[in-house]
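step=encode ok
step=design start
structure_in=
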């Protein structure tokens, strides 16, 4: 999907050497680096990327929401950030904390929210307690932001 939309130079980071090896085996990435998000700075200069994505890592016990300024640091002005989190019961506290941090950065003028979309069938649940209304799936949210400075859209 990213290639079809013009993103051809893909870099990836992960805190697990094993996951980096799996990513390397796909042949999709031009660069892969070991990095623990939220603990270490990203191995990239400021304002380097047109788009930054974090999928499947923003959750309870994983990447802390304090990583957001670092994600912004490596994104070019006018660039995009696509982030996801789960909406299952064990992640609700984290999701609220993440959304508070997202909102604070938006109010400060660091970025503009373009989308916050709930996805009902995000991934298969591993327990019935985590399942959304007995569907066997966990719901989630996709957030898309654009880094300022860009002209902010007028409300209304």
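sequence_out=
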């Amino acid at each position: 999907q990213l290639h079809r939309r013009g993103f051809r130079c893909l870099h990836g980071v992960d805190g697990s050497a094993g996951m980096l090896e799996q990513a390397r085996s796909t042949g999709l990435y031009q660069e892969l680096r070991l990095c623990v998000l939220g603990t270490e700075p990203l191995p990239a200069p400021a304002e380097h990327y047109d788009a930054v994505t974090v999928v499947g890592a923003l959750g309870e016990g994983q990447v802390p929401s304090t990583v957001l300024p670092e994600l912004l640091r490596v994104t070019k002005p006018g660039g995009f950030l696509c982030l996801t989190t789960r909406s299952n019961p064990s992640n609700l506290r984290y999701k609220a904390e993440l959304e508070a941090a997202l909102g604070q950065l938006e109010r400060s003028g660091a970025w503009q929210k373009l989308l916050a979309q709930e996805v009902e069938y995000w991934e298969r649940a591993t327990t019935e307690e985590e399942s959304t209304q007995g569907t066997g799936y966990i719901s989630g949210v996709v957030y898309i932001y654009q880094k300022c400075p860009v002209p902010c859209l007028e409300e209304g």
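step=design ok
step=annotate ok -> The chain has a mean pLDDT of 92.
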